[in-house]
Amino acid sequence: MQLYFNTISEPNGPGAKWKKLFDSYWPVYHAWLNSKGAAYVPDLQTSQAALKKYMPKMWPTYERLCRLANGDPVAARFLTGFQPPAYISACAQAVITKSAVQLVRNYDYHPDLMEGTLLLSAWNGKKVIATSDCLIGAVDGMNEDGLVVSLTFGGRKEVGMGFGIPFILRYVLEFCSNVEEAVETLISIPSHMSYNVTVIDRSGTFRTILLSPDRDPIITDASFTTNHQGTIDWPENASFNKTIERSSYLENLLTDKSLPANKMADAFLRTPLYNTLFDQGFGTLYTAVYNPIEGTVQWRWPDEGILVSFADFKEESKLIKFNQPSLKLSPELKDRNLTTAEVNVPQVDWQEDTSDFLVNGLGLFSLPGESEKLKVIRENIIHRGEISWELLADYWSNFGKEYWKKWQN
Prior knowledge:
This protein is an alpha+beta fold. It has two domains: 2-321, Penicillin V Acylase, Chain A; 331-408. 37% of the residues lie in helices and 23% in strands. The protein contains 14 helices and 18 strands. The protein has helices at residues 16-36, 44-54, 59-68, 73-79, 165-175, 179-186, 235-241, 243-253, 261-267, 331-334, 340-343, 345-363, 371-381, 389-408, and strands at residues 2-10, 92-96, 102-109, 117-121, 128-133, 137-143, 148-153, 195-200, 206-211, 218-220, 224-225, 276-277, 282-291, 296-300, 305-309, 316-321, 382-383, 386-387. The strands form three sheets. The protein has a nine-stranded mixed β-sheet with strand order 10-9-8-7-6-5-4-1-16. The protein starts with a strand and ends with a helix.
């Protein structure tokens, strides 16, 4: 399992290089949208109206990107960022402000679902270095004013009306200059899923905002986040991504108020923050280190690194190989001639047991005649031996809508 990570500079507005990115990744995104079926429902007019209402300053850039996308109406709908399919990553992030002003984050996801692009752009007059997602969005980034923004999944399965978080983060980076402006913008735009967004500027001011589709934003002074929002709302997902264990580790790490910047960054390359379940969508694809005072961004891996800045941004490509760790056998088992199936039994049992639990729970609330539908869902929740967490989020959202619709009739 491997992925090319590329640094790309296009500081004069979106043009040929963004068009190349679109041509490379749009077929994959298009297939993703088709695979979600009715879960992705807003028409183009509705999506564009939402963009104009909530992120009006982005409209000229959006129109330019649509022209570069050859006027494809499906792409135009997608690029609004409104009501995308559910997607679930993990991630962890933390800030320090004493020994240095720094944000460090791990992006935990499946290698097949990442663009692998660190893009330097200036779409609206402000230079931005950001990890690209959804072609127009960002999962973390910094602008030339020294504002840094990063996200972690909030650990809740609710899906509501709103924008995908990468599109919202892009808007913050394009038009905000400090934490105060960023917070005001973040709480004004609806997010379609739950995310924890940390913002920090070069003054050392920082905030973490807990966004959800079904409740008001919560502004906090938290210096770190993993994948829950206070309480655990989705126990199965929390158990899988070990959000409590990673949160406790960060809390203990940050008790040292003078923690050196390099030591905090190094900690993200070690367990429990560094994760290796790449084929299950829970592997650390990169560690990002943002220094807003110096204007530097570093992508890090255990044995590799890329360092760029606004003053010195070089284009390069680096192939990173991700290896799923082999199961460590106890001494009494090493002498046995185990088959691959035997070795993987604990992992498969966990996936199957969790899926049974989830589907059985749905069955408690199902309507007459729904048993066949639940059987189909059960067959699809496990895909190639792994739980599809995104499918679960899609289903929970649609299930609630259909359930109430039928009971109201």
